[in-house]
Amino acid sequence: MATYALPARALLAQQAEWLAPARGRLLRQVSIARRKRVLDLGAGYGAATAELVRRAGGPVVALDRAIVALQTATGAFDGAYCVAGDALRLPFADGTFDLVFTQLTLLWVHPLAAAVREIARVLTKDGALVSLEPDYGGLIEYPPEMAARELWLNGLARAGADPRVGRKLPGLLAAQGLRVSVGLFDTLHPPAAARFDFLRDLPLNAEEMATLARIEQQALELRSPWAQIAHLPFFLIMAVKAG
User: Fold this and answer.
1) Is residue 173 pLDDT above 80, yes or no?
2) Which phi and psi (to 5°) does residue 111 adopt?
């Protein structure tokens, strides 16, 4: 997995809140209440773990490579079993889980194909993966002079992430014999100023930081929220292992 440190806990919590409606729909579609063994892969500070514990029909294991996150997120992992481990070498036997959940996790894992093989390995027959992962290569922005796409692509790549992970996942999952379905956000919202906080958390150079400051100032000067567009495509993936 990437060596880049986890983003600030508050930013991760905000991301999880933005994704909550889509996450809820996906979990309902895979009948989470009937899932008896669930893996929260890349749990981080537990932004979604409590929801999985509340909704699942059996025990939830929260796994992350960042041991400090598992140790310091007081209360976030109540009811879950915490395990420090690597997505490339999951410390579980074949067919352990009937649901694996990832959210903004595979973005940071490379090689991605190896992680996908591990997910397929630990899934039971008829087990499902629910994955919410972004694709910064498809970022939609307007007006063009406020576009920050290249900042995202450069900063994420330097941090060890794959900014185009979303578009790569379906094919890799299908290659493992999983039945894949993919959705995208069906609603466009006015852009949130917090996106600049996420960008500042990435390793940008001095020129890029200056560009970010200019874009942020221009965004503040636009009075109408719909005078600007900043839409990040998310691949909302369900993949089921053939029984």
Assistant:
1) yes
2) -70, 135
